[in-house]
Structure formats: structure tokens, C-alpha cells
Amino acid sequence: MTTPLPHGLPGLFIALEGGDGAGKSTQAALLHDALQAGGRTVVRTREPGGTPIGEELRSLVLDHGHGEIDARTEALMFAASRSAHVHQVILPALRRGDVVVCARYIDSSVAYQGTGRGLGAESVLQLNFWATDGLRPDLTVLLDVAPAEGRSRRTSGTVAEDRLESEPDAFHTSIRSAFLELAAAEPSRYLVLAASGAAEEIHRAVLRALAGATA
Ligand code: TYD
Fold first, then answer.
1. Minimal CA–CA distance to 153: which of 8, 6, 25, 3?
2. Range of the domain at 57
């Protein structure tokens, strides 16, 4: 099986991963502001979404009410959104030398569709390597969250749960293990942090890791 090479472009690609309610958007915002204050041009984005077609796919795959979506269709929808995102937004930014901060990337598909939906990590990885021309992040920050904690953080807001979020805790437990396995297999490209820590502390740990990675 092919393993993609580092992208070799002048920019920096940082992905934030983790279960629902892990605090990825809070960390993405903090990171965006800190890097921008340091003089970098930062593209903050998220998946599914990030392009007009990706946003359409996002509502199709996440909103309730589109009828049953089988696991392979679901995996292809996330991969299609990602392919548009990589080719229209992420690669152009990396070629310009920008920093891309992206909430969720391929690991989310491996965890949710590969493990959660039972499609298998390897086939979901290969589908996504094809969709993205093998583009991988320089650093993936995994915010590790226990399903019960993630659920209580999410439901403390007013937003209704989407199709994936409303899956039972066992589904989210398997996703948590899948993320941790991915990180354990490639420790040099991952930073794993407990999502239960204070947002500011997590943010400082991310900045320290980045300083080390780019030194
Ligand atoms: P997101 O908006 O990031 O949710 P949250 O902010 O609550 O973490 O992601 C939406 C949902 O889509 C989330 O439940 C995870 C799911 N998802 C997949 O199943 N596969 C994927 O490849 C991606 C990117 C997301």
C-alpha cells in the first residue's frame, strides 16, 4: 500500500482531530490568532466543508432528513468534500506559504467511517489518499475526549446533534480508540492532549509543539 510522502510545499498544514465536543474549534481559533499575531498568513478551515460544494455535502451528510445513507456513500461524501477542499483551498494555501489550520481531516474518516461504520481503516485511508493526492498534515493535534464528556460539552449548547453525533456512546468509544491508534502509529506527526484541560493550557502545549516542529 502506498504511504504518501511529506508535501514539500512552503506552507504548514496543521490538522485538529478528536471526538465530538473535544474543543477543536476553540483551539483552531486560538491557534489562528496566535500565528497571525506572529506574522503568518493563516487559513482557518474545517471539514466537512470549506468550499461551496463541501458545504453542500456537509448538510447532505450531517443533517437528518435525507433518508438512509449507507456507510460507503457516507465515506464517499466526506472524501468528495475533502477532495474539493484540498484542491481548491489547502494546496493553493500551502503553495503560497500560508499556514492551514483545519478542524478534522482524513483521520476523522478513518475513525468514524473506517472504525465507527466498520468499513475498515485501510480502505478508508486508501480512498482518502486518492481523493487528496496523498496530502498529509505536518502536525496533527489529537484532542482526546471521553464520549460522555464530549456529549455533555456538546449538549450544554443549544445546537441539535447531527447524524454522527447522535450515535450511541459505544460508537464514540470506538472512534476515540481509533484516533489514539492512529496517533500511536506515528508519534512524530501527532500531539495528543487531554481535551479536559483548560483551553489556554492546551493552546500553549500546541504552540510549544509547533515551535519544536518548525525549529
Ligand atoms: P464537526 O462539525 O467537526 O463536529 P464537531 O464540531 O461537533 O466536532 O463534524 C461533524 C461531524 O462529521 C462529526 O460528528 C464527525 C463527522 N465526520 C465524519 O464522520 N467523517 C469525516 O471525515 C469528517 C470530516 C467528519
1. 25
2. 12-214
